[in-house]
Amino acid sequence: MPFTLIITEKPQAAEKIASALSEGPVRKKGKGGAYWLEFERNGKLHVCVPAVGHLYVLNTKKGDGWSYPIFDIDWVPTYTRKGTEYTKKYLKNIEDLQDGADEFIVATDFDVEGEVIGYNILKFACKKDDAKRMKFSTLTKSDLEESYNNLLPHLELGQAEAGLTRHYLDFYWGINTTRALTLSMKGHLKNGFVVVSSGRVQSPTLKILADREIEIRGFKAVPYWQLMLKCVHEKEELIAFYEEDKIWEKGKAERIKTECQGKDATVKDVEQKKYKQMPPFPLDPTTLQTEAYNNFKFSLKQTMSIAESLYNAGLISYPRTSSQEYPAKIGFDKILSKLSANPKFSADCKQLLSKGNLSPTKGSKTDPAHPAIYPTGEIPRGLNPSQERMYEMIARRFLAVFGDDAIRETMKVVLDVNKHNFIITGKRTVELGWTKFYQKFIRFEEQILPD
């Protein structure tokens, strides 16, 4: 019986899609260590089959030795590379299933890499030039059903071509410059043959690091002096600093110190200013990585790996977006209402919902394919500690973008000590505003000066 074959990027996505679209039980079948999922929808059999990322990679044609330049390359199965043999069973699974399909749907991530993955599987494993396309930003049941009910009639060939081109350029650059550099060192190394690796991103990054190292080594330290004043006001010790941040002459610093030692400090001037601190922008990957490092010391790779796991669990939207904006169509009220079922966020969600008009902040970056990262509102279950921390930060950031401005106040006090000026500065939060929702993940300086 002919069926619709749905190709996904990863096993978790296949399970989410099958569960969301099935109008009855989902049947898990498999052979050779891989599996597929069968279900009925609209009276027709559907088969959801997962890949494990890229099932095809670029490689040189055999017999080229170590010559260069190399431009004669082919797409080959990923399992032909050492260390990726496990992908063979997934590719064989798709190749065997495609014979019985009369309709193909690509449901890989809707981005450049996802399009390349789907395009290559369709072309080489299924021998097809085109297919219908699911476009979704979360793996929730409602989003997946909407995506299926509004299938794009074709692959996004523009995205596919962009991704294929990048793969070709990366390969051409990497293999040719690596071979050129490596062969140029031949005969000049005591240890014999050593591969000198190069790459489109790797080489410019190395240049930046090398330039910085040269700059550091060439730095000439110049000594300077700073003056700090300790004074007591109503039994409270205060710290003030001399108005010149750096004093370049030791004699001058010692003279000022002598003239101020043991003298009274008189308040010469007080300056107070209040200002608004706007809510933060919605999360894009760069901001997510920065926040995760600042709060948890997660590496960039670790951050994106955790974010991917939360996405695959249906807890957050697609994390590799380029956007800093939330479109209204994601349903602010709906997400906040679902989040309010979580005791951690219940009171804050109800406070925001009571505002009526929900208007999030937005940054300058946009992405037509995916919105900024947001929580879906699904209740988390079985998360490990790292996932829990990341999820809470993403959820609280979502709440914060709907908050009011925070009101902060700065104070600058100038002290006169024997005709020398010393300065004390203070900062405090007057109205919490959005910081109430995100205070666990921000570090505002709070230095309250006495009256």
Description:
This protein is of the alpha+beta class and 451 residues long. The protein has 3 domains: 3-162, Rossmann fold; 228-278 and 406-441, Topoisomerase I, domain 3 (Distorted Sandwich), CATH 2.70.20; 285-400, Orthogonal Bundle (Topoisomerase I, domain 4), CATH 1.10.290.10. Helices cover 36% and strands 21% of the residues. It contains 13 helices and 13 strands. The protein has helices at 11-21, 88-98, 112-125, 141-149, 157-184, 202-217, 250-260, 285-296, 300-312, 332-339, 346-353, 385-400, 435-438, and strands spanning 3-8, 27-31, 34-41, 44-50, 56-60, 73-77, 101-107, 132-133, 228-233, 236-242, 266-277, 406-417, 420-431. The strands form 3 sheets. Strands 2-3-4-1-7-8 form a 6-stranded mixed beta sheet, with helices on both faces. Strands 9-10-13-12-11 form a 5-stranded antiparallel beta sheet, with no helix packed on it. α1 packs across α4, α9 packs across α12 and α10 packs antiparallel against α11. It is flat, with a radius of gyration of 30 Å. The model has no long low-confidence stretch (mean pLDDT 95).
Task: Provide keyphrases for this structure.
single chain; Topoisomerase I, domain 3; six-stranded mixed sheet; 3 domains; five-stranded antiparallel sheet; 451 residues; Topoisomerase I, domain 4; alpha+beta
Residues in β-strands, percent: 15-25%
Oligomeric state: single chain
The CATH topology of the largest domain corresponds to: Rossmann fold
Q: What's the CATH architecture of the largest domain? A: 3-Layer(aba) Sandwich
Q: What is the number of independent domains? A: 3
The geometry reads as flat
Distance between the termini: 83 Å
Give the spatial strand order of the biggest sheet: 2-3-4-1-7-8
Content-based structural category? alpha+beta
Count of DSSP E strands?
13
